[in-house]
Design brief:
Layout (H helix, E strand, L loop, with lengths): L1 E6 L7 H14 L3 E5 L3 H5 L3 E4 L1 H4 L21 H14 L3 E6 L1 H12 L4 E5 L15 H22 L2 E6 L6 H9 L4 E3 L7 H15 L2 E6 L27 H13 L3 E5 L11 H19 L5 E6 L2 E6 H4 L8 H8 L4
Parallel strand pairs: 1-2, 1-4, 4-5, 6-8, 6-9, 7-8
Antiparallel strand pairs: 2-3, 10-11
The structure holds 6-O-phosphono-beta-D-fructofuranose (F6P).
6-O-phosphono-beta-D-fructofuranose binds next to loops.
Length: 340
Amino acid sequence: MKFGVLTGGGDCPGLNAAIRAVVYRATGHGHTVVGFLDGWKGVRDHLLRPLTRADVHDIVVRGGTILGSSRTNPFKSEEDATKVLSTLGAEGIDALVAIGGDDTLSAARELARRGGKVVGVPKTMDNDVGGTDWTFGFDSASTAAVEALARLRDTAHSHHRAIILEVMGRHAGWVALATGLGGAADATLLPEEPFDEEALIRHVRTAVSHRGYAIVVVSEGVDLGRPKGATGGQDEFGHELLRERGVGAEVGRRIEAATGIETRSAQIGHIQRGGPPTLFDRILATRLGVHAVDLALGGRFGEVAVLRGERVEGVPLEAALRAPKTVPAPWMDLLHAFDA
Ligand code: F6P
């Protein structure tokens, strides 16, 4: 068989580990692999390179993706859809492995609906893909945010300030939750919860009165009740670029206005998407990449490899993409047990 593999959407640590897993598993069974460049753009525009074991043998340790990525929506027009099918036909691709988040996988679902032989691997630092317990990229990105929070704590302590760290994660609060819990924040704001300014001010005052400084984590997707979409712009899948709204800075301004406590804010932004993957992400990406090849070898096209408990298994893309996975109430309860 000839396998194709692509990485689409926002990059995250672990993509290279997944590519390597696909190449090793497929070539281990005597098959060949090509990598499409820059996500679905490479399939649409016929941009690819061969992938051998020598190309990927040590990339498990590297962040980013050796194939490049983009937020190209290949089914934006029928013309583009035709190009996708024609590239796959011309190259004689027997199985395509699409590694990505909701958007990349929804394009895979569309390809499957049109008879394409495609399987999925979920990734995203946002951890918001349905059907899987965790996505790789999330652990690495949250670890980077926890490290940033520790640095901010030092300076907040020295200057007796409140400091806000705004983290990414889109409309799911997983990264903020992990950062707040793992980094001992005094308050953490998630997009899944209505913004409660009074409670926030209370937590900040309590923290400052106990030890002279406060640390707050804010998810970029938090709705502060301002008009939406005012400043951000959109990507090709129609998603607002949330960090442009600057909710962390706005929360900082409100805290300072309400309390008189000197307040600063920082956006970690894309720093949390780079760097080597954590061990957890390397192993998860490896397991999912191998399983995706096994799904294809078993003819289980239209499925995505997912983690459920200790097991890696295949579920239909249709089921996994039914709804994004957001933070449920028990996690919020745990998080807020540690508010100041
Ligand atoms: O989906 C991953 C993510 O990092 C989100 O958390 C964030 O909102 C978005 O991508 C940023 O997108 P871009 O890299 O296109 O600016």
